[in-house]
Amino acid sequence: ECPIGLLPLNGDHSGNAAGKLLYKALKRREITKKLLANAGDNASVNGVATRYLSKRISGKQDRTNARDMQVGCAAHVVNLVVQAFLSGLGLAPDPDEEDLYESARAFDLVYDPEQDPEVQEQLAAAKEERRLAAKETDGEVSDDGGVSSGSDTDEDEDKSDGESESGAARPQGLGDSDGEDDGRSDVGKEQAGGKVRGSAGRAARAARTGKKTRSRKPLGVVDKLHTICVDVLRSEKQRKRFCHLQRKYCKKDVQGLTLVRSMPIRWNTKHAEIERASKLKEAVIQWVDSLTHGLTGQKFTAAQRKKTKLYLAPEDWKLLEDILAILEPFKDITLHFSRKGVPTISLVLPLYRKMQTHVKMSQATYSTNADLRTGLRLASAKLEVYMTKALTGRYYLLGAVLHPYIRVAYFENADLWPVDVGQRARELLDEVYNEYKIIYDRQATSQATSAAPRPAPSTSIFAAAIRDAGAPTSPSKSEPERYVQPGWHPCDNEDDVLLWWKASVLQSAVC
């Protein structure tokens, strides 16, 4: 990789404007004839820029059509597919209307709770809490860990209902609420500081303004879990209470974990939130169940309402497990695409097909749930769009064929690919081989002209004995034929493709 310039985009950010700037930069350095592809995310503006470059460069070199030149970001496609799935569940906007990847690019592609500073801070605090608790006897600690139940202070309760503590808008979810209230702080809402709040306050305001109040929908399953996680992590007081429940009800191997709070723009944080809460399921259940402990009067009534709102039934936990199972392969594929030092263009088609297979199997497994069925249908449709685009061009297929771990045999599997894909894979291999063979032969001829004369054939008895065997009865296989032959110079490590090709130079006249 070598930057050739920083191009200012003042005012006009259209694809044509970007294409013009790119073309001028390439032409100034006289490298337009060497341009093979334009790589970037799948934003429409990049497609327009590629088409502009294709028109300007067409005629100066072969294969400059936009279809081949456009190489999109595979990780972006994974995000779009997952967002389409979540949009069917009401947990994300339609990716055709709002692409969350544009905002998520500010963060790492892969989310790892172990690398999250906020999570690490919570883990350190929880570790200290466990250390202090170890010094106390069981009789010195109450059932609630010495911390009162219910929500935190009025200041916390008055936070914007549709936002988390980070200020990010909370997405809605399965059977979602209308976003007017997230149920995190019902305790004490009815009366506080002499002001009427909650449903009574909304009714009073509606009476004064003449506007109708919106009817509340119940929180969705994922929203409930997110609300619980936010409630637990909102203060040290709440976290300590959960930490006590965690020590009391969870297995020892997960007592060192903490809950994760998701971000609306990063689907993998939602996966981490569900995954971590599932591991701490017993503590989460006890957290909700103990919301009314030690409360009386109006606070008890408000806490009871909140407890009812946040209750996760066994079928809710089953649904969360199903969502987690659907998202898990997408997390693994994102991790695979994010590795450094590994060519990823070879991985695109196999991993796209892996996603398609996973989505299809999930559709059969979760066919009885309407929300999951809708989400998977949208994910399948979105993935089909980008699979078609990937197969239309030549570089994804060629990149896979030239990976010695894949080659042509993979695309000849009729259970995975149409017959024409395997045929086209072999045609592309032969085409590229013949193209470079012409270049190689030309260079070899030039070198042979200036090289020292070859010695005369040997006249020894040994040489004569070998010549007596005559010419081979069957012609030797071409290099492409040897390459696609099973077992020829096997590649045992999927990540050593570049090292494999360096070693293969000794066995090939062209590569």
UniProtKB/TrEMBL annotation:
Q: Where is this region: Disordered?
A: 128-217
One CC-aspect GO term: nucleus
Record field: compositional bias (Low complexity): 193-207
Entry keyword annotation includes Zinc-finger: yes
Query: What segments bear the compositional bias annotation Basic and acidic residues?
Result: 128-138
Comp. bias (Acidic residues)? 152-164
Q: Which UniProt keywords apply?
A: Metal-binding, Nucleus, Zinc, Zinc-finger
GO MF annotation, one: zinc ion binding
Where it sits in the cell: the answer is: Nucleus
Q: Where is the composition biased (Basic residues)?
A: 208-217
Q: Which residues form the signal peptide?
A: none
What name does the UniProt record give this protein?
Uncharacterized protein
What organism is this sequence from?
Phanerochaete sordida
